[in-house]
Every structure is written in structure tokens, then in C-alpha cells.
Amino acid sequence: MTTSRTVLVTGGNRGIGFAIAEQFIALGHRVAVTARSGEGPVGSLTVRADVTDAASVDAAFTEVEAALGPVEILVANAGITKDTLLLRMTEEDFTSVVDTNLSGAFRVVKRASKGMLKARFGRIILVSSVVGLLGSAGQVNYSASKSGLVGLARSVTRELGSRGITANVIAPGFIETDMTAELPEAQQAEYKKAIPAGRFATAEEVAKVVTWLAGDDAGYISGAVIPVDGGLGMGH
């Protein structure tokens, strides 16, 4: 039996975020998603927010709190990529990715923690990536932003861990999404060769790990990095 909670998933209008929101709805939670455009799954409340803007984040939380109550489970999933080789990467390519993926997570975690401290309960789940620890050519900005989430979660754990709040990171590998579906067959085969499991994950497989981490059974797990990558990033 899971306790019904108020959940906010950032970037919940597509891909992994959408699947995570769906999974929480299926388990009977009250779910809101942030999106810059598009909508979350049926049964969720979609609020407009830009995670690079603290005022926008604050307004989104205020809207969710009024409709569903204080956020008890936060999934920081909103992210962007601007892949290019280091020597071609502009300052803006780097700072914009870090501002969305890492500073954006900081903004939503900071705003959510107020209500969590009051309730003496909270689950913070940061969606990183296997490349955050493994590295990836052409993704200096993305990889740096995703590895930064580990330090964020671990410091939050040390600050807030005694108040019933956990902060964890999940590190997905290759996932079957619209983005991976567009890759040429040969490239997909090449990637699959590097994955011990020999296949990409489904978004649902990632979502189920997130809902488990957010649940009552995972209350003693904090500051952890949970890979969902078919063995791709082992040893990291």
C-alpha cells in the first residue's frame, strides 16, 4: 500500500518525464508536471514553468500547492542538450545547458524543500544520465551538468537527511524515446553492442525505478546514484 502524495515532475510533457508522471498517476498519487509547451499525461495538472527562471518556478509551485497541496515528491527531470565538440562549443552552448539541467534542478529543489521541511517528509529525485559519470564525446556541457546533480543530491542529503527528506539520483542509459528512434539503424546497433543488456530501456522501466525510490520502502536510501542503463556505465 503506497501513501498517496503530491508529486511534481519537471519536463513532464514528453519522454521519460511523461512516463514518470504516468506511473505516479497509476499508483494513485496527485501529479503535476511542468512544461514549457505541450501537456502532461491524462490525469495530471500541467503548469507552465521555465526552470531557468526562479520567479517562474515559484509561480508554478504556488499553483500546484493551491490545487494539490504541498509538493512531497519532486522529480527534477527537465533537461536540454546542445551537443557539439569541445572546440566548437560556444560559451552559450555550455552555460545554457548547465543553467537548465543543473541550476534548474537547484531552483526546483530549493523551492520544494520549504514545504518538505515543514512536513518533515520529502523525496527528491534528480534525473541524471549514464554520461554524467561515463562521459561522452561531444557532450562536455551535458555531461558536466548531469554529474553536477550527484554533488547536489549528496549535499542536500547531508543538510536535510535528518528531517525525513531523501535526495537521490537516477542515471538512465539509452532509452527508447522519439529521439533514439530517429537514429539510423546502424548507429542504434552500434550503441546496443556497447550495452551488456543488448537493448535500450523502455521509459516505463526508468519510471518504475523513480516511483520505487519515491515510495515508503525506500526511506533509508539517500545520496545514491541508481543506474538504469543495462550495465553500460558499470564501475562508475
UniProtKB/TrEMBL annotation:
Keyword Oxidoreductase: yes
SUPFAM superfamilies: NAD(P)-binding Rossmann-fold domains
UniProt keyword list: Oxidoreductase
Record-linked SMART domains: PKS_KR
GO molecular-function term, one example from the UniProt record: oxidoreductase activity
Top-rank taxon: Bacteria
Domain spans labelled Ketoreductase: 5-173
Pfam family, one: adh_short_C2
Homology family: Belongs to the short-chain dehydrogenases/reductases (SDR) family.
PANTHER family: 3-OXOACYL-(ACYL-CARRIER-PROTEIN) REDUCTASE, 3-OXOACYL-[ACYL-CARRIER-PROTEIN] REDUCTASE FABG
Stated name of the protein: SDR family oxidoreductase
Organism: Lacisediminihabitans profunda
